[in-house]
Amino acid sequence: MTYLKLILLALLATPLAALIMMNPHPVTVRLDPLGLGIVSPAQVELPLAALVIGAALLGLLIGVVLEWIREAGERREKARAERRLAEAEAKLAALQPAGSGL
Fold first, then answer.
1. How many other CB atoms are found less than 10 A from the CB of residue 56?
2. E strand or H helix at 99, and its extent?
3. SS3 content of the chain, % helix, strand, coil (to 5)
4. What is the pTM of this model?
5. Over the stretch 39-48, which tens digit does the pLDDT of each residue have?
6. Rounded to 5 degrees, what angle do the CA atoms 38, 41, 43 make?
């Protein structure tokens, strides 16, 4: 399994390294495409690789947050089920005779 992870990492790292080496020049990113002056500064110069990696990380962060929100109901239901189980076990222990080994 470790070899598989290393192979996957190499397959992902190789194109990224090629992107970084082949595009060292900065690109201009306009944060206010309509020119309304809402965002200050209105443009930023970044290397293309930084822009691509930043966009991928932003997408990953958005995906993680959305998944965390989606799973909130499942976490709440699990906590509720665990509480009900603990209550049922406590009731069962109270109903069992003290000397029985069950």
1. 11
2. none
3. 65, 10, 25
4. 0.60
5. 666 788 888 8
6. 105
